[in-house]
Design a protein that fits this description.
99 residues, alpha/beta, Transcription Regulator spoIIAA, four-stranded mixed beta sheet, 4 helices
Amino acid sequence: MDYQINDRGGDAHVKFTGDITFSENVNFRQLLKDIAELNLKSCEFDLSGVDMVDSAGLGMFLIAREQATTAGWKLSVSGAKGHVASMLKLTKLSDLLDG
């Protein structure tokens, strides 16, 4: 998993590429630390470059949602396709992550 953060003056866009799996836990937590340093109103996770997400990856999205709620910014997810879109829909995370 790689990511690139584009801060648009309080509205961040995070473009992911690669798979989001258990092995990316440390990298994802670093992303959350990087996001926490920004003064955000909203953050969009663009998953159009992600081909696979496992249960740990889904859990990481829940951790991000909790951080967003606690810090007072809105988290949304866009661009999910194929396996990733199916997993978000199956687990109803697509309902929790406005997108």
